[in-house]
Amino acid sequence: MKTLNKISIIALTSLLVLSSCETTELDLTSNPNALSPAQASADLFMNEIQVDFAYMVNGLNGVGSRLTRINQLGGERLYRDAYSPNSFSGVWSQAYQQIMEDIRVMNGLAAESGLTYYIAMGEVMQAYTLLTLVDYFGDIPYTEALLGSENLNPALDSGQSVYNAALALLDSAINNFGQGGAAPQYDMYYGGDASGWIKAANSIKKKAYLNLGDYASYNSITNYITDSSDDFQFTWGTNAINPDTRHPMYSSSYSNTGAGVYQSNWLMNRLMIGRNGMRDPRINYLFYRQVAQTPGKDAPADEISLECSTPGYYIEPHRVAYGLYCNLPEGYWGRDHGNDEGIPPDGFKRTIAGVYPAGGAFDDESFQSLGLGDGLGGLGITPVMLNSWMHFMNAEVAVMTGGDPTTETLAAIRSSLNKVDDIAGAPAMDAASIDSYIANFAADWTAASSLGAKLELWAEEFWIASQGGGTENYNSYRRNGYPQNLQPMVEPDPGQFPLSMWYPQNFAANNSNVTQKSDVSGRVFWNSNGPAVD
Amino acid sequence: MKSLFRLLVVFLLTTQLSFAQKTVTGVVSDPDGLPLPGATVLVQNTTTGVTTDFDGNFSINVSEGQSLEFSFVGYETSAIVVGSGNVINVSLSLGNQLDEVIVTSLGITREKRALGYAVSEVDNSQIESRASGDVARVLSGKASGVQVTNQGGISGSGTSVVIRGLSTFSSSNQPLFVVDGVPFQSDTNAQGSFTSGNNGSSRFLDLDPNNIESVNVLKGLAAATLYGSQGRNGVVLITTKSGTTASGLNAQKNEVTVNTSYFSNELAMKPDYQMEYGNGFNQNFGWFFSNWGPSFREEGPAGWGKQSAINGTVSGQPGFLKHPYNSNLNARFLARDLLPLLGLSEDSLWEWKPYDSAGDLFQPGSIVNTNINFRGQSDDGKVSYNVNYGNLDDQGFTPGNTLRRNNISFGGRAVLSNKITVNGTLNYSFTDFKSPPIAAAYSSGSSDSSLYGNVFYTPRSVSIADLPYAHPITGASIYYRSSNGIQHPLWTVNNTQDAQATHRVYGGTSVQYDISDNLNVQYRYGYDVYSEDNTSYQNKGGVDGSVESQSGFYEKWNNTSTIFNHQITINGDYELDSDWSMTFNAGATSNAKEYDRNGVRSTGQNVFNVLRHYNFNNQEEIEYYSRRNVLGVFGQASLDYQNYLYITLASRTDWVSNLSEENRSITYPSASISFVPSSVLDFGNLPIDFLKVRASYGTSATYPTGYPIASTLNLDTKSFQVAGTDVISNTTGSQLGNTALKPELLAELEFGIEANLLDNRLSAEVSYFQRNTTDLIISQPLDPSTGYTSTSTNIGKIEATGWEVDLNADWIRGDKFNWSTSLNYTTNQAIVVDLGQDTDQIVYAGFSTRGNAAIPGLPLTSMIGTSVGRDASGAPIIDASGSYTSNNDTNYKTNKYALIGDANPDFIANISNTITYGDFSFNFLFNATIGGDMYSNYIMTLLGRGITTDTVDRELPYVLPGVLSDGSPNNKQIDNATTYFGNLILGADELRTWDASVLRLSEVSLTYDVPSKWLDKTPFGAASVSAQGFNLWYDAYNTPEGTNYDPNIAGLGVGNGSGFEYFNGVSAKRYGVSVKLTF
User: Fold this and answer.
1) Which of 28-87 (B) contact A at CB < 8 A?
2) For the residues of B375-406, what is the DSSP string, one character each?
């Protein structure tokens, strides 16, 4: 019996020891559910950076375009609440934690392998990101940013110093693109063409100099985007699921349950009015109408799907700008600036984004209810910097330096018309109508009695040419105050038009070196003497 | 040689002195057959005596004719005259109730009077034959300090158990379950989060409550020290019937017990629908979500007679409108020429009347529950066994919701020799849970086809049952709303499902070797493996959610979770001198937990309703793996001075595998003291039968889960496409690995008093605790400009305090008539004291702008969200349109969202009454949960959409109480839709928050025990029949009357969040009968 006891004790002890080998391992600290940073690849980083950059540009364009009435600003009646700190948390993360941190880590890998082209692409995207963040938020972290645990509360750098740093990055990028390094597997912007990137870098420098009011430096740059074939833009795809590669403007308009956003009544009205009696030929490219008539205008009032079409809905006197407040005829069914009403079941009636730039449908006036997959399926573009915009900026510089903006403005409009016309998958625009539109514009331009009236026309055209963009319009609007006759908010007293944005919630709340702004009336450094805008 | 000589002397002396003496052996056990170690066996009228060993065995020299006196604290002393036999087995009956012996940590039995901390006990009579198959829900209300929250009334849905309130916000606050001495996994692996998925059972659902013998709840840290970090949230110690097999002659005779029940399972939370107004807005008809349309009367300012749409006539009867499918649905969804396939035509009309719009959908389900138990032992009492089989078939009231469970368990125990005892249990369970999706829903649909969201606010003039739900050709969802913007609830029921089928094996084996009568060594191996097969699918053609969901998806994955637990202990029991005795336990343990998730998610269905991966266009992996090992050594020593003063000291040191080497280990000690004045002091004429005071100090630690110190890099194989080719990408991980992370520390001080008064008619136990949590492991949000968005770090302090009171009164003690009442009362509050330098608000559950937040100086259960703008005096500020303003500006400037409530109730009280008369007994359990707030999407939507009787008074204008921006009293009149829809649905979160106080009749039962004389001629030893009801009545009296709201809902899932409900749970009521037979 004793022997048996001994045997069983030995057996038990060895069982414990043997079976415990795995259970006693105490060094299980690395995460098997993800790669470790040492396994990174510069090419794979470059892919992610380019896609994230497109999403970030698109997101910030959306802010600028809604504030400037290119797209419809909805949901809030007060400018203060139009964008809350929380609404910028996503873009802040995208900019720093994704794009710039990925660039920082990728640069280490690229430097080891002499991948100057990669480094240069990163520099351009980082410079654009920094400039744009300053344009929207003012002072931002730069020198103390991206230090990880070494600094959990990066201090702010002045907008001016970040601008300087971004300009230096662009110079470095231009130099690096000149090194002849290999392009990454996917160059989603210029397909491996370094000269395109150099033009983009120079164009971004020019727009920075324009914001700074440094016209001499602006004019000294000549190798910039002077042809639409060099436009700095991202091309989306048509895959809806896993991954979703569609233009975000398309996704929000073309769905099985109807459109999720409204188009801007101001912009549609602007295109309907056109020039000198001629409707803008871009209207059927930019907008698609799902119905031919609008309730309360050319169809009977319909309190179910367009409540404001009911007679007496707006009690006089309400401000009448462009004859708006509620509805436009001919099925141009959008919403006014600042409309915060609930959403009626009009998703298959309201006007949706067209073929340009969202990759939707060309308005062939068949008035269909469109949904997922219709039109080009999302194969659109997000512009970062376009040839037409460079012309508009050149015109502004001409004015500021005492010159004549006419030539550049006309070139800008022609470039925009061609750009819209060139979108694949839509009928070609009648060449005569392009010429005709420019001629009619020229007639209005000539008839404009003052520089101010000309600038109004100039700005309206800049706006029309900027569908899909918005950041440059927000900058331009703050620089010069045109167009001055934009549709006001439906709320009579909406507060100050935002001259810069609330700091993002995840920035202001988590960084002890940052204090949230007291309002949105603060101007960014280059705009300290800007005009009054609302 | 010397010792041999001594032995010889002793032998000679004894044989000479007591010639007639012989050695008597035996076992002393309790009424359940459990051996009583340390019981005193005394030869009456002498000082000769021995104590029993760990297995209750004794051996004593005694003469025939002398009496042996058996005594043990808490039991009636018994005397037996020694006869001719050499074996005397004794079962002691229970004495004073408070002097009972109870199971404490690691299965160590101790007298309750010796414990310096609180332990609650629940016996099987309070657990078995219940309508819920979920042991935690059955425990609800039965122990003080324990708060049980149902995720909802879906059968098989998760359950949150929190003991003594929250102590942390980043780690789990759910207690450790220990079944028959082995740690038992009680995780809730919900499918997705509360916004998508949300279905998932809490794995204690795999236990059959009918197989439970008893439950002890260890509440404090001192009580659970030996369990280490796992015991930090309290321990639910469950002893199953299979784990109670005992040796000894008093173990149960061979018997079979059959317990079977039938219950009806109904929707309790049914709104009182108003019958006067139908679908529309501003008294105008429209196929909307809302029910602010015309009235069902023809006349009057809101009458349908004014509506041009309601102009149809059927058989001369006016009051009809065009059927929604021919007036309304776009050709994109339903071409007109397909109407005949649905039995409709272009002339089909729809009657304008109130329908039983949602009521048809919820049908009472049934619960059939059977349990068979076999137990017995060998003739010599050395081998005993228990076999238990349980079957549960629970049909929910929600269509598509079922829970089926089969349990089989075996337990056995054998005394192999005098020195070795082996013990083992083996359990197998299969739990099959199915439910339609019930994730968060809002006032207009949901992101995950959540069924409830689309049902409860169905307009009164719409009938779910009378509208075909599927496109006749494609099978896609069709419904009444213009643009088809709502998913038909019947489509959801018929085309979606979440399911979890879980095979589980668990149990343990222990081998004990008695080194001497005072010392033994025990090795215990515990295992618990479950394999959870999850399925979640939706056919193509849905309306809710993303393009992916609408394309149809099919997900199948398996979660295999394994715990291996080894433990070796050495246990001693010594009398130091006549006053002092000591027991000690020392040991080492290893605990390994491995969790492996594997599966495939497919999207893009081709052929409708074919649910195989090959039928889908895209496949993605579902994968997650974690393993964590914890090693521990522990020791405990208990000193007993003259049975009235007890001191226990314990300590445990752990090493954990997912922290860096220098922060891997931590030691946490505890000490407790119990003093029984009633055993030494004379209370004179005071009616005090028993009095005990106790105090304890305990510590514990929380280890992080996952891999918090690792920095990672993400790889996405489908980041984008270029020319139709998938683009692969890298991106830096968003979590900053923190190698300095260390365990979170908890320390608790507890005081208690226990007393029996008035001939033990009245008993009371009161406990107070104060618990501090420091070095909180926090997922600290970082400014992304650092390059990261979060890091795990140690900051801050939480201080929790609470009271627990248990009272019991035997009002009437008679031969036939008995009446007793017991009450338990719980209150606790955790206050955030500090959050470190970098932040003063961390949202830890819910949405970042509306959720539970830790804010220094405020309760941990605080709820934040958007608030109403107020003037200096606190009056709401009304805007120019007559609605409440919101307080955004302040929120923005402070980086914070405003406090909108506190989810923690002020107190919870449960009153149970038992009245017996002869063979009848009547019992009810009444619960009062007072205070605590609830953000409710359910109430918001039902009122905001104008559905319930609360909104029927609607034709006169409203003026909201408050002031205008100039400070004058508000005089702006607004209409019903603006008041309810505009403010409740579109307004600040604060307006959607209600006081969640609730009174509830939790349980009521009437039982009849068939008299044993009637059973004499039957094979049955005992029989009883019982009628029972659960949650038959409740009233959340501060919520709108017509909503019938039941706030016992964990809307954020089983976790640390509380006080938010997103239409993802409605409560059930159950009633039925059960029969118990023993033969």
Assistant:
1) none
2) EEE-TTSSEEEEEEEEEEEEE-SSTT-EEEEE
| Contact assessment for residue B601 and residue B620, using Cβ atoms and an 8 Å cutoff | yes
Over the range B354-391, which residues count as b (16 or more CB within 10 Å of their CB) and which as e? bbebbbebbeebebebbbbbebbbeeebbbbbbbbbbb
A495-528 in b/e form (b: 16+ CB < 10 A) is: bebbbbbbbbbbbbbbbeebebbebbebebbbbe
Tell me the nearest-neighbour CA distance from A111 into chain B, angstroms: 17
The Cα of A10 is separated from the nearest Cα of chain B by a number of Å equal to 12
Determine the pLDDT at residue B13: 41
Residues in A touching B330 (Cβ below 8 Å): 348, 369
Which B residues in the span 149-168 are in contact with A, Cβ-Cβ below 8 Å? none
Please return the burial class of B535, using the count of CB atoms within 10 Å of its CB with bins 0-12, 13-18 and 19+: middle
Give helix A471-480 / helix A194-212 axis angle, nearest 10°.
Answer: 30
Whether the bond into A383 is cis, omega within 30 of 0: no
* B889 interaction partners in chain A (CB closer than 8 Å): 80, 519
Instruction: Tell me whether strands A156-157 and A140-141 are parallel, antiparallel or unpaired.
Output: antiparallel
Nearest CA among B351, B429, B547 for reference residue A245: B547
pLDDT recorded at residue B19? 44
Query: What is the 8-class DSSP label of residue A96?
Result: I
CA atoms within 13 A on the CB side of B396: 23
Q: How far apart are CA B560 and CA B502, in angstroms?
A: 9
Share of chain B above pLDDT 70, in %: 96
pLDDT score for B244: 66
Distance CA B109, CA B73 (A): 13
Is the confidence at residue B76, as pLDDT, over 80? no
Taking only residues 143 to 172 of chain A, the set having a beta carbon closer than 8 angstroms to any beta carbon of chain B reads 145-149, 151-154
CB contact under 8 A, A151 and B592: no
| Contact present, B810 and B771 (Cβ < 8 Å) | no
Rounded to whole angstroms, the Cα distance separating B988 from B878 reads 12
Side-chain-side CA neighbours of B602 within 13 Å: the count stands at 18
Q: CA A162 → CA A52, A59, A103, A129, distances in Å?
A: 21, 21, 17, 11
Query: Chain A residue with minimal CA distance to B331?
Result: A369
Could A510 and B736 be called an inter-chain contact, meaning their C-beta atoms sit closer than 8 Å?
Answer: no
| pLDDT for residue B966 is more than 50 | yes
| Cα diameter, chain A | 118
Q: Which of B549, B730, B782, B842 to mutate to test the interface with A (most CBs of A within 10 A)?
A: B730
Interface predicted TM-score (ipTM): 0.93
Strands B920-930 and B312-314: unpaired
Q: Of B949, B945, B905, B910, nearest to B1044 (Cα)?
A: B949
Q: Which residue of chain A comes nearest to B741, CA vs CA?
A: A29
Taking a contact as any Cβ pair under 8 Å apart, which residues of chain A between 280 and 309 contact chain B?
A: 303-305, 307
- How far is residue B959 from each of residues B392, B495, B870, B964, measured CA to CA in Å? 54, 45, 17, 12
Of the candidates B710, B719, B778, B693, the one whose C-alpha atom is nearest the C-alpha of residue B743 is B778
Q: Do B496 and B452 form a contact (C-beta atoms < 8 A)? A: no
Cβ neighbours of B881 (radius 10 Å): 12
Q: Chain A residues with CB inside 8 Å of B420's CB?
A: 5, 8
Predicted confidence at residue B633, as pLDDT, reads 92
Q: Which among B706, B724, B729 has the least Cβ separation from residue A51?
A: B729
Radius of gyration, CA atoms only, chain B: 33
Q: What is the DSSP string of A352-368?
A: EEBSTTTS-B---S---
User: Which tens digits make up the pLDDT trace of B473-527?
Assistant: 999 999 998 788 899 999 999 999 999 999 999 998 989 898 888 899 999 999 9
**Count of CB contacts below 8 A, A vs B?**
296
